[in-house]
Amino acid sequence: MTGRGRPHKAKSPDTKCAKGKTRPEEVKQVPPPRCPGKSFTEEKQNGTIKEQKPKVQKKTSHTEDKPSVQRTRKVEATENFTEISKQQSTTTDHIKAPVQHVKAKKCVGKAKSLEKVSEEMTKVQPEATKEATKASVKTTKAKTSDCKTKPPGKITETKTQPETPKDTTNADSILYTTLEKLKIKRDERSDAAEVINKIVKCIIAHLKQNTICFKEVGEPLRTGSYYENLKISNPDEFDVMLPMPVDRVNINPFGENGAFYSVELKRGKSPLQKFQETSILSASKMLEEFREEVKKCVKPFEEWAVERKKRGCPAVTLITEVQSVTISLDIVLSIMVKSSWPLFTKDGIKIEDWLGTKVKQGFKRMPYYLVPKYEGKGTVENEGVLAKDVWRVSFSHVEKAILKNHGSEKTCCETGGARCCRKDCLKLLKHLLSLLKKKDSSFDKFCSYHAKTTLLHACCSRTKDTDWPASNLSQCFRLLLKDFVTYLEGGVLNNFFIPTQNLLSGPDQKKCNNLARRIREECDTGFPIFK
Q1: At 168, is the pLDDT very low, low, confident or very high (cuts 50, 70, 90)?
Q2: Least crowded by CB within 10 Å, which of 126, 421, 481, 496?
Q3: Residue 78, exposed/middle/buried by CB under 10 A (0-12, 13-18, 19+)?
C-alpha cells in the first residue's frame, strides 16, 4: 500500500514531517469519518517512502496560505505532543491508535485545515511544552523505533500467560513430591530383604527334608511389586511363589473366562497323587497340607506369626515386625507346568509392537504356573468339580520380566539411556487407589493388580519410549488415569494374558462408577489427596 495507482495530489505542508514523525491529524482521538483502516506499521513505512521521493520539495497547490514559521512551530509541537500522548494514553486508546493513524493517512486530502489544528494545539500545547524537546529527539531516531514498540495489548497477554504453566508446574511438583515420599529407603529395603530371605530359606529346607509330598519344591519365584521395583512407601509386602514341578498334566477350563482350571495328573508316579480325588488334583487338600507344614517350620521363630486363612486365597501369610514396620510375607504354593500355554491366552499379551515378536515368543516358551485359588463359593460345582478344588493360571513371572525390561529401546531407564515414566505412573496410580480405599471401604474389591493391568494395556497402545518421557510425567499419568476411568465406566478390564477374563466382574457397576468419579475429581482439582 504505497499509494501507487491513485491520482496524484499535491502534498500539504505537513508532508515535510513524514519521516519518523507523527502528523497533526494524529492528535485527534476520534477518527475522521469514512476512512478505511490499515495497520500502524504500514503507515510508518508509507510515510518513509513518501519522504524519499524527490518531489518532496515541490510547492503545494493548495489554496491555503503557505505555512508560516509560527505554524511550523505549532506542527512540531503537535508532533511532540502526539508522542507524549501516546505514552500517557490508556491501553484502550493504544489499541485503537493504529486504526486512527490509518484512517488519518487515507484521508490526507480531506484533513482538517491548519487553522483548526492550530486551535486544537493552542489548547493542549501548554501541557506538552515541558517534554517537547525530549519527545522530539525520540521522534527523529530510527524510522522503525515506533514499530518495534510492543502494543499494550501484547503486554497484557504477557502478564496473563504464566498462569496456565504455573498450574501445570504446580501439578508436576505435587506428583514429583509424592514420588519422593513413596521411595523406600535403602537401609529399610536391605533390612527387610534380609529377614524375608532367611525365613524363605528355612521353609524350603523344611519342605525338602521333612515332607514327602513337597520335597521336590523348586527355587522360589520372587514376584510382586517389591521384586518388580514397584513397591511404594514401605517394604511391607512380599510375595514368594514355591513351585512344585509336574511332568505332564491335563487341564480343563472351569467356567468360561479361561482363568480357572481343573488339573489331572497323567500316568506315572508323583508324590502329588496323594491329593487326587478320582482323577482331579484337589487344590484345597494340597493347600491345606502345605499350610500345616509352613506352620510347623515357622513355630520356632517367635517373631513370626501365621495369619488366619482367607477364603479363596492361595497364600500362607506370615507377619513380623522389622524396626517397628509390620511386614507381611505371602508364601504361595504353585504347580509349574512345562507345556504350551492354555488356548485362552492365544489373543493375549499383545506386545509385538511394544517389545517385539521375538520377546513374546521367548515368553511363550516359558512354563506357566497354577495356584490354588477360586472365586465365589467353594461349593459351586461344574462338571463334577468343586470350585475349591480348581487352580488359577498365573503369569506373574512374565509380568515381572516385562516390567523390568519395559522399554521399546533396550537402553530405556539404563545408565546412559533415556528415562521413561512408566513405573512412576503406575506407582502414583497404586498410591491413589490405596488412599481412596482408605477413605471409602466400598472400594475394597479394587486392587493394585487392576492398576498394573491398566499400565500393561497402556504400554501396548503407546508403545514408544518417547510416549513416556520422564519429563512429561503429569500428562502421562493423566492419560493412564483416563484409561483406568474408561475401564471403570465400561465395567470391563480384560486380563492382559487372558482377554476373556474381565477383572472388573467382581465389583458392581455402581462401585466402578463411584471410583471413576472420585478419580476424575482428584485429577480436576490437582490431586489434593496427595498433599
Answers
A1: low
A2: 126
A3: buried
What is the sign of the dihedral through the CA atoms of 96, 102, 105 and 106?
negative
All CATH 1.10.1410.40 domain ranges of the chain, comma separated, are 407-531
Q: Taking the chain, what is the end-to-end CA distance rounded to the nearest angstrom?
A: 60
pLDDT tens digits, 47-104: 444 444 444 444 444 444 444 444 444 444 444 444 444 444 444 444 444 444 444 4
CATH 3.30.460.90 residue window(s) in the chain = 182-405
**Strand 381-382 with 385-386, pairing:** antiparallel
CATH of domain 182-405: 3.30.460.90
Q: Which grid coordinates belong to 457?
A: 494395556
Can you point out the beta strands (E) in 288-410?
305-306, 315-322, 325-337, 368-371, 381-382, 385-386, 391-394
CA separation for the pair 114, 120 (Å, rounded): 10
Q: What is the pLDDT of residues 196-240, one digit of tens each?
A: 999 999 999 999 999 999 999 999 998 877 777 777 777 788 899
Which residues are registered as beta bridge partners of 243? 334
pLDDT digits (tens, 9 = 90+) for 385-407: 999 999 999 999 999 999 999 99
Look at the alpha carbons of 385, 342, 369, 401 in this order and tell me if their dihedral is positive or negative.
negative
Interatomic CA distance for residues 308 and 49, integer angstroms: 95
Whether the model clears a pTM of 0.70, i.e. scores above it, the answer is no
The DSSP 8-state label assigned to residue 224 in this structure reads S
Topology at the third CATH level for domain 407-531:
Poly(a)-polymerase, middle domain (1.10.1410)
Round to whole Å and give the CA distance between 257 and 348.
Answer: 13
DSSP string, 279-296: TEE-HHHHHHHHHHHHHH
